[in-house]
Amino acid sequence: MILFSVFSSIALVSSVMVIRAKNPVHSVLFFILVFFNTSGLLVLLGLDFFAMIFLVVYVGAIAVLFLFVVMMLNIKIAEIHENVLRYLPVGGIIGLIFLLEIFFIIDNDYIPILPTKLSTTYLTYTVYAEKIQSWTNLETLGNLLYTTYFILFLVSSLILLVAMIGAIVLTMHKTTQVKRQDVFRQNAIDFKTLSIAQKITQSDPK
Amino acid sequence: MASMQRRKGPNVVGLFGLLQPLADGFKLMIKEPILPSSANLFIFIMAPVITFMLSLIAWAVIPNQLSTPTFDYGMVLSDLNVGILYLFAISSLGVYGIITAGWSSNSKYAFLGALRSAAQMVSYEVSIGLIIITVLICVGSCNFSEIVIAQKQIWFGIPLFPVFIMFFISCLAETNRAPFDLPEAEAELVAGYNVEYSSMGFALSFSGEYANMILMSLCTLLFLGGWLPILDIPIFQAIPGSIWFSIKVLFFLFVYIWVRAAFPRYRYDQLMRLGWKVFLPLSLARVVSVSGVLVAFDWLP
Questions:
Q1: Number of cross-chain residue pairs from A and B with Cβ atoms under 8 Å apart
Q2: A109 in Cβ contact with B54 (< 8 Å)
Q3: What ipTM, to 2 d.p.?
Q4: CA B238 to CA B256: how far, in whole Å?
Q5: Which parts pass through the membrane (chain B) (predicted)?
Q6: How far apart are CA A74 and CA A77, in angstroms?
Q7: CB burial class (10 A; 0-12, 13-18, 19+) of residue B196?
Q8: Of B97, B148, B124, B52, residue with least CA distance to B276
Q9: Is residue A135 predicted with pLDDT exceeding 90?
Q10: Burial level of B78, CB count in 10 A (0-12/13-18/19+)?
């Protein structure tokens, strides 16, 4: 219980600090802190594999990319003396709508006017099967993701492929004409041709 | 390393210069810490702390010995079921120590060096991840003790020998070490991501890097059998597992330093070319081929 409150409170505070920090690098660092705490919450839920995958994928790759972009953007620490209250009406309405959506998603019991299942005393159903032989997270994921739900796996890999091709196409604009070093040709130069190459370079005006 | 370069090397401090690292550490600790005035102080101080802390945390999952019938415990600090993934996450987080160190120094040289070093680490992490997957396929679980037990019949380094070599080279590149130390060599020269640090900051970064190096040679126990003796005969089993473990780690550290002295440095674009165009396809091919062989002969664990 203590761990849960620690992780969730730090996650909430850091996520608020993401949008409130003046320095964009600070907000990315708070972003990383959010993911750390989320992965801690996942560990508390018993999903150890997902916690590690969160760390590897989100913190180790995605946030690193964010950090690269933010650090290279040369943003001066914005002394934005803007009036924040200008955004309050519309922003407040949108925020309230999101909050309501969260309540809709979490549990119908929290909204008393909607017809609820009204299960205040419910019997806990012990899954005896998992007490005899329990699979690890990895095993269950492997058993389900690659057999029953393999379509999801293939679709997500196609999405990643599209993203990768998009990134390569964006950066391929002028670099296909760049002169590259041909290592094999360099290794194949013997002494006679080397001296020829030196003559060519010596005649270059410096 | 000095004898490989045909010079004397440090032999003043202790017997054969063995106390030289201690003298270096002592000197670093009593130096005056310099804090750049326009740097972000909190991040500046925390960056080497992060580096060192991550290298130390990663030791928590490395087992020294098995919980044999005589011993009732597995000599590991925490027997995670996702042990290898934990190590992979730690090495992904190691990138942050470098980026924050370079950026918070508030000097362009340090920043660029840090970005290059971070890009190099990220590139070789992909290859490390794929090779880890290759070993995982042969074993069946991410648990470190499980991986070491699975090598009882034969070490993984022997059938998967090319994978072992690739893993070793990727570990060299991951720790910014040996032929791939362009960012680090610049730290020994003028520019590099550690240029603004002095005394404890530098000491922590440096120790973090060496601890990372030892960690990577610990990772190589995936392949060489953790604490298992060479052959399964009782003579070798009388020697406790920890000693085998330390012998292997020492062997790998020796090879690390040997490689550092023996090979010239890779240029940065050659390094990146190697990581993405050579190691990534090769390790991907090894994953596919190993899983293909295992499925074909029905040897899946």
A1: 63
A2: no
A3: 0.76
A4: 29
A5: 41-62, 83-103, 123-142, 154-173, 210-230, 242-259, 279-300
A6: 9
A7: buried
A8: B124
A9: no
A10: exposed
